[in-house]
Amino acid sequence: MSCPSVGRTLRPCRRPSLCLLLLLVFLLLSLVALVVRLRTPPSEHRLSANTSQAVRRHHFYDSDHSFNLRFTSNSDSTDSSADSPSCRLSTCLDIGRCSSSSPLRIHIYPWIDSSSAETNWSPLFASIVEIISKSVYFESNPNKACLFLNTVWDTLDRDPLSADFQKPSAVMTTSQPLLGGRNHLVFNLYSGSWPEYRELDFQFSDPNYGNGIQEILAKGIRVKTSQSESLFRPLFDISFPLFPRDHPLHGPPVRPPLPPTPPAPPTRFIGRRRRRQHLLVFKGKRYVYGIGSETRNSLHFLREDEDVRILTTCRHGKRWQDLKDDKCDEDDAQYAAHDFQTLMRNATFCLVPRGRRLSSFRFLESLAVGCIPVLLSNEYVLPFADVIDWSSCVVRGDERLLLQIPETLRQFSDNHVLRMRRHCRHLYDQFFSSVDRIVFTALSSIESRLLPHSRFPDFVLNADTLSTQFLTTQWLFGNRNLNPTLYSSRRLYSNETLRIVAVVSVDSNRDSPALSRLLYRTIIPLLSSETIAEIAIVLPEKGVSLPPLVVHSSRIRLHRNVSSFAAVVPDDDDNNTDAVLYLSSQSLLTKEEIQFAVGVWRSFPERVVGFEARNHFYSSAKQRFEVSNRWTNRFSWVSSDGSIVPMAVLRASVDSSSSECQSLSLAFISSHFSRLAPLKVGQRKHVTNSSNDRSFSALSARRDCFDGLIRSYGYIPFIGSRLRLDPLLFLDSVDKRRKKYLQMESI
Q1: DSSP 399
Q2: What confidence tens digit (pLDDT) does each residue in 194-245 have?
Q3: Integer Cα distance of 128 and 685 in angstroms
Q4: From CA 100, how far away is CA 451, in angstroms rounded?
């Protein structure tokens, strides 16, 4: 078989007219391509030629109601100093300074009092500086610090149209950052301005800002909102949530109780499936032109469904009246007739489209009410994505497939919806309910990258159980002496013996013989209880005659002149103490009451369990909050006398010379970390046979301590409750000789 000849000549065209037509079409297409290339701006030539740059396409409605397309890249969207895509932990960070600092140590410089007139900070930036300076993350010595926060430049709000925009000052031109800008934090909520809203345009190009800020922007860790996937530096930057200026700093604001609000519309039942009244809701601005209009101006197409409620308004900016369309008047009328909070509380899903920037206030607002957010922002990096598992809470939609969203949401089962709603509320309470929690979550996320050996388990951070919430909150606030298995089901809900230490505080105001009898009566039930591993007796400086039983028992330790409850129990891992039972020398608890209280705490290990409950209330006459010393059905905290306190709460407590203040301090810490009310256990009679807590000095000391704690925490974390666990409620028809607690009926 011979091979075909390679040098064969081409055949002539048999149909010259067809060949000529094809040649003309080819020449015409080449001419069109040449004209388009000549009319294309040079910047777009550079974008199409350089394939290594990230190209971003923005569709938007222009002011003349025409639909346009704009191309931008990393270099066009920001100053060259702020664009450092090569920054990683190994290139822009001195990790050696962070090898031995746990928790993360942050130095703030130059130190300026936030109340000083020399500062021109925004209120939120001043709050962030104050939160870090008063936390365990603060380090006053720059040689021991891992990260730095420069207070000369307020980088939080960099929109020139904002009232919080910081203008240049004389000190900026002479200020230079430490370490050449490395190991610095850059907090930012708003960057860019109308009409481009460039992501990394921090508006520091004015020479009066100095060159120091350019070094910080180039090498610092950006803790920033509205970060896109193309400009986000993985494992280096932190995606920050967008929150309003009036977001609570530490918790709900301290204000008088509001009058009762009318009940929300009832939940609709569809067959046996329990659903909220609306499937999907949204209320917000509808941009008729500019960035973000390609998404928000198309939301009206979703109104055709009955269970979808979309409310928009055109009232935005200065030119909205000149550029409004035919639908604006009708939309504004419906927009003003509905309350957004009521809509969200009666909706299963809340639409969260992007605004002028990638993020939106609607994201945290929907999480706060347990409404599942449906995100419409294709390039948006979710907040703290390397720490929080958003797959069980957020539904990510595609801006290009808007009409498919309602039908997709209808495919979710009821059980899946309930789990997502519960997890959304958990994430908000745990990480986003206050400014300090948001800041501490960002710092904990950075620490987990720099110190991976001390990283808190991700399953504990994302679990929505009560015990893991308690541990996660303490971890965010800087408590590193935690054991994640402290409240594990293997230990607390098994037959393993718990180690509980009883601390008995001796009152020195009584004479020694009477005190000796009371002390003997208090210790006998503790020695006979199997759940009490050790007894610590705190004695005053004066001499006290102790019973022989106290002196010779190996389970009893004596302490003198102790300033706080925490100093009595050793704070080490070998001790392995689960909880502490506090009693006074005048306590009248029996063995059965103690064992029942321990059983209650074992079922709720994240709460404080006590016998003597108290309440706080708002006094209209004095225009202030006060604490009550009366026994009422409603209570919000329990006294330390006769209470069981988890060891994790005790480790986070502070020293106090007053017993009244120690009780309130433990109550504040427990409610602040767990966000749960304490548990009251019923008893046969009053815990103590003394009325010293009603004396004027005791009430005055309690009031002063309560006011001081409110100033320290910034809010009142107490949560009211009416639940009382009484042993009489657990009686049954079983013969008492077969029970574990033989004298339960006599309590």
Answers
A1: G
A2: 888 899 999 999 999 999 999 999 999 999 999 999 999 998 999 999 999 9
A3: 49
A4: 9
- In order of 196, 298, 587, 611, the CA distances from 289 in angstroms are 12, 12, 72, 63
Q: How far apart are CA 531 and CA 529, in angstroms?
A: 6
Burial of 11 (0-12, 13-18, 19+ CB in 10 A): exposed
Taken in order of first residue, the domains within the chain and their CATH numbers are 95-239 (no CATH), 275-433 (3.40.50.2000), 497-730 (3.90.550.10)
CB 449 within 8 A of CB 387: no
| Cβ 258 vs Cβ 327: under 8 Å | no
- pLDDT, one tens digit per residue, over 296-307 is 878 878 877 788
Closest by alpha carbon to 307, among 407, 413, 411, 414?
407
pLDDT tens for 578-636 read 888 888 877 778 888 888 888 888 888 778 899 888 888 888 888 888 888 777 788 98
* Tens digit of each residue's pLDDT (9 = 90 or more) over 255-274: 455 444 444 444 444 433 44
Alpha-helix residue ranges (DSSP H) falling in 73-208: 123-133
- Residue 495 sits at the vertex; the CA angle it makes with 729 and 607, to the nearest 5 degrees, is 55
d(CA 579, CA 601): 9
Question: What are the helix and strand counts (H, E) for the chain?
Answer: 21, 26
Look at residue 516 and give its three-state secondary structure.
helix
Q: What is the pLDDT of residues 454-500, one digit of tens each?
A: 777 777 788 776 667 767 777 787 777 665 555 444 444 455 567 88
